[in-house]
Amino acid sequence: MLPKTTKALVVAEAQDKSELPYAARVIEQELRPLKGNELLVRIEAVAFNHRDVCYILCFHWQLADLTSIQLWIRKNLYPGIGVGEVLGSDGAGMELLPISLFERNSPWWGIGSVIASGTANDILIGRRVFLTPSRGWDQDPTGPEQKFTVIGGVKGPSIGTFAEYVIVERNEVIEIPPHLDFEHAAAWPLAGVTAWRAINYQAGVKRGHNVLVTGIGGGVAIIALQLLVFIGANVYVTSGSDKKIQRAVELGAKAGFNYKSGMDLEKVLKQENHTLDSVIDSAGGDILRLTSKILKPGGVLDFIASNRFYDERGFSQYTPQGYMAYSFSLLICCAHHHLGSAMGSKRELLEATNFIAEHRIIPVVCNVIEGLESFEDGFELMKEGAQFGKIVIRVHRNSKL
């Protein structure tokens, strides 16, 4: 029997809007009949992103003052937030049922009918897949072809991964590489495509390049480090935690620098007669000044779309309007290329997935939580800010993955 309902974690109105404009709760939803090109996917694992807890729900406890981040939500500066919409951009699971051309007008047909349909889509029945985390950007390397949207918590498209079952269009799933289990596959898509585009299309990193990755510990930064190591770059990292730096070195970083104890990156690079070819920055802060002397002329400083309005030292990186302080004198005098990255296309996600399959790269998962009802545990872990890697929910408790 196919399921007729699903549990889902949705955006809800907060009871006390003086503190947070939105809350989250698990509800039971009906599953509608499938349309012609749709699949029913049993979700096995989902991963948290700062987008879910910061932009959508405003659960960013690392901030000393929530005023500026609340402005984003209360002034509707994050487009399309929808009460009742399912949260989550990253999810991995198994295909249960694609509707065949022969059964298009027949809702909830049995598995046997679909297996016998003979359509091309049927080859994915029972296969392990992850959902593509965005819509509107298929293959143009310069930017989205249509209105770009990240799924989860928004009105259009009305789809999110934090659910037991998800109905999704056939062309919005990608098969999971064989070496990944569901938890690690769930940690891959959004962070993976973001890091891949920043490295390959924005910074143009090649073997032997010297690259600085800031804010190591977050999902994008860690995957960027892993990809860069396999490309053959010399990778340096920054963090406010010696423990995170040590983990990064174990993953292949050349060295790490703790900004809380004094940044000596310039000294080390001079000793090795190196300058940086590029900086992949997802931490923000005073990165322009810090890298102006060690980024080579013509080097690339690539800003990853960041959810941090204050750094771990409490220094403001952005104004309440969301703008980073910017020095045009540094831009002109140093002849650097300053670029911005925000995710990437479906084509880039496919390229990146093929790359990690070839090199058997495994995204770092730091915590696995059992069941959607335990979502608050994930928020608490993100509040602590000590994680190194992704926080994942195993949706079906005690399932053997």
Automatic annotation (TrEMBL):
This is Enoyl reductase (ER) domain-containing protein. GO terms for molecular function: oxidoreductase activity. Residues 19-393 form the Enoyl reductase (ER) domain. It comes from the Eukaryota. Keywords: Membrane, Transmembrane, Transmembrane helix. The chain crosses the membrane at residues 211-237. Pfam families: ADH_zinc_N (PF00107). SUPFAM superfamilies: GroES-like, NAD(P)-binding Rossmann-fold domains. Gene3D superfamilies: Medium-chain alcohol dehydrogenases, catalytic domain, NAD(P)-binding Rossmann-like Domain. The keyword Isomerase does not apply.
